[in-house]
Amino acid sequence: MLALTQLWVPIxxxxxxxxxxxxxxxxxxxxHNSDYRKLPNEDEVxxxxxxxxxxxxxxxxxxxxxxxxxxxxEIQQKYVEGPNGIITVISSGVPNMGPKxxxxxxxxxxxxxxxxxxxxxxxxxxxxxxxxxxxAGTVAFASYAMGTIPGSIWMGKPWLATLKDVADGLVYGLLxxxxxxxxxxx
Length: 186
Prior knowledge:
Layout: H1 8-29, H2 42-52, E1 57-61, H3 73-81, E2 85-89, H4 97-122, H5 129-145, H6 149-154, H7 159-183
Antiparallel strand pairs: 1-2
């Protein structure tokens, strides 16, 4: 069984490769830009939300968390009238990508540590490239992709956007698998 310390190079390299790969996906290819649509009355919605001054957080409308309440005619009418939605409100101000990118890189390291843990417990020293690639890629893919699916099941996220997230997870899994397969200790 390998120690995680023997895998620090593939952990860091795979996190870096995923960071670069995600930058290409989001900043060069921009294939997620179509995942976000503009409200036809954005200014009015923003004005109404500013008036209510919601704190950053996640909101649902109509707000009805008790299934017994959903049976009330006035709540049923709200659902029929619409719109129904889940809204995430973030802090006001010009977005600062620095902290988010730092958190993203940290997340990539955490995923790579989990990949290293599973691989180090299931694969011996000197395992051939393809076997390491398979194990590392499967764990990385599951880590990056599977958690996005419940957003479409429960939160109404468009399935096409989720399928793109899953495709991203496949790319990130392949990058991680390649790094681990290439740098697996002999």
